[in-house]
Design goal:
Strand content: 25-35%
Distance between the termini: 38 Å
Helix content: 25-40%
Bound molecules: adenosine-5'-diphosphate
Structural class: alpha/beta
Shape: globular
Number of helices: 10
């Protein structure tokens, strides 16, 4: 599968410019859209799943143009929206069975097999008789990904799926996505949580104020900040000044003072040492200074 997004822009009716000249190519695997709240991720995803029309620009899926082939493209898609809600009183399996029938699985026996298999895959088989609304937050999110996957889609779009999950459920959800990505499908994952990207994605875009400020593998983004991530040894009383001067990633008490991780081109006059950067350093660096550095 291939998705090509070309010169895509979206201006809402009230004049909000949510996306500006977006160019992204996506291939099989998990593609991460990383950016702060308001960056334009949901707008881009809603355009991808044909719920929203762009103001200008194009999206093609394989050779199909989204403007001309909405129905065909929609049939290839699974979508887990940010505000995913269950229907009132359905049991977990009933909900999935309902979605499966909507997605065209008419034969009852085949549908039961697909639903049971999916419940098994997302770890909800044991709670299949529980009303969907009574599932825990993490279970609901897993049912959400199950309903996005049940029609055997070629493209799966998931919007901020780990927000509000506890660490255990977040890891479980990420692992589930990684397992799914072995098939010949594109999973588009939007998130403002850096750890979601670093633990699942082979390709990503960093979105900021409606523009793509980076597109490529996470590793290459990290390479760009090598030499710009530091641990400063701050004595008591210095912490505030360090915080005012640099974007701080973390500050950990250490021997009567603090070890403060910052991103900057230089840290003098403070004593410290360069750090091996990770995606969090890279994210904060580019959000703070932009691509051209500080
Ligand atoms: P994200 O998903 O990254 O948080 P969104 O796509 O939701 O970003 O929002 C991008 C920008 O578009 C924000 O400035 C937001 O306020 C604006 N926006 C989103 N939806 C609408 C809408 N329906 N009408 C007007 N502006 C909107």
């Amino acid at each position: 599968m291939r998705i090509a997004i070309n010169d895509l822009s979206k201006v809402y009716r009230n004049g909000n410019r949510a996306l500006q000249d977006i160019n992204i190519q996506m291939g099989n695997g998990i593609f991460g859209l990383l950016g702060p709240n308001g960056a334009g991720k949901t707008t881009l995803m809603r355009i991808l799943v044909t719920l929203l029309k762009p103001t200008s620009g194009s999206v093609t899926v394989n050779e199909l143009d989204l403007r001309k082939h909405r129905r065909e493209i929609r049939a290839m898609m699974g979508y887990l929206p940010q505000d995913f809600r269950m229907f009132a009183k359905l049991r977990t399996w009933e909900f999935l069975d309902y979605v499966a029938s909507l997605s065209g699985l008419r034969n009852a026996r085949e549908r039961t097999r697909a639903v049971d298999g999916m419940l098994e895959q997302v770890g909800l088989f044991d709670v299949r008789d529980r009303p969907a609304k009574k599932l825990s937050g993490g279970m609901k999110r897993r049912l959400g990904i199950a309903q996005a996957l049940i029609g055997d889609p070629k493209i799966v779009v998931v919007d901020e799926p780990t927000t509000g999950l506890d660490p255990g459920e977040r890891i479980r959800f990420r692992n589930l996505l990684s397992e799914m990505s072995r098939k010949e499908i594109i999973i588009v994952l939007s998130t403002h949580i850096v750890g979601d990207i670093s633990s699942t994605c082979n390709d990503m875009a960093l979105v900021h104020e409606g523009r793509v400020v980076y597109n490529g593998p996470p590793g290459r983004l990290i390479d760009k900040v090598r030499g710009h991530a530091w641990a400063i040894d701050a004595v008591d009383g210095e912490l505030e000044a360090v915080r005012e001067r640099f974007p701080v990633i973390s500050s950990i008490p250490s021997g009567g003072g603090w070890e403060v991780q910052v991103v900057a081109d230089r840290i003098d006059p403070y004593p410290g040492r360069p750090l091996e950067p990770n995606l969090e350093h890279a994210y904060v660096y580019f959000m703070e200074y932009g691509l051209n550095g500080s």
